[in-house]
Predict the structure.
Amino acid sequence: MTRQATDLLRTLIATPSVSRDENAAADVVEAFLRDHGVRTRRYADNIVALPERFVPGLPVLMLNSHIDTVRPAPSYSFDPFAPFEENGRLYGLGSNDAGASVVSLIAAFLQLRGEDLPLNLLLAVSAEEEVGGENGMRLLLPSLAADGIVPDMAIIGEPTGMQPAIAERGLVVLDCVTRGITGHAARPEGVNAIYRAIDDISLLRGFRFGNESETLGPVRISVTMIEAGRQHNVVPDECRWVADIRTTDAYSNEETVRILQEAVSRHSVLTPRSTRIRASVIDPRHPLVRAASGMGLTPFISPTTSDMSLMHGIPSLKIGPGDSARSHSANEFILIDEIEQAISLYPKLIRKCSNETLGQGF
């Protein structure tokens, strides 16, 4: 099974699939599944593998990972689309993030699809994860719902060293504009927009929300960019700055923006680029977490975001082969042993989750 999975991963690496251009890679996955007798549905470049028997009334566990990649770093020392194996490592763009998870979850699905589990097992290989695109998970979940399929829980394949991530922060980027009054710098006139912005930035730097997430702790605020002024002798009437907000489940993203807007002065307007990327926290009593903990795995909070942020209301566990530190870096690789471990561990986790689900009367 490991060799079959690594052969598929080689093919995927050799098939460029930068975000929003995954058509060829989706074709590869779809053909592979159909060659193994799996019924599939396709929504744009998202491929869904259906169980042999879908039982109405049973909970739906979705196995998900993504086929898109970031663009290759310029510092690659080899062709990122020419996979090769050396010293137990398989090199190539997308090998670690998240091709190894894709092929390992496919292997797990093929192992389990004929078993009599107390849940419906669904495999979803999705697109546009790296950009949170409109034709990835944002298209896939409504499309499944329109076909009468709503996941009750999900395992998300991302490089975590096969340890379970039970939470990740959301993200809101605020484009902020602070207004002043222009004037000549040599005269005591005008109102400097930079000074007003500094006051509001200082306020946000020390701002504390009333509620705090039990799992994720406080909301984190970082001002990361600032720009103002046209020339040295003119008092600027506008200062633009950017705030990076790492949100939690204590507040919705919309609530977070509203609270911060009310906290700053009336001279500053805070505009979110998007509120889609939400914090994700799974209850520690959920069957997925109980199953992972029962296997001796160590739950942790992930520092990175994933499609978990788009699965509103779907309890999700992020776990997969590889190391997040290798993602988006040059000379990306995955250990063959990591794929072998994932192919062995995923089915055990799913079976144990099935038993926990049955035991809790999910």
About this structure: The chain has a mean pLDDT of 95. The chain has two domains: 2-168+279-359, 178-272. The two ends are 32 Å apart (CA to CA). The chain has eight helices and 18 strands.
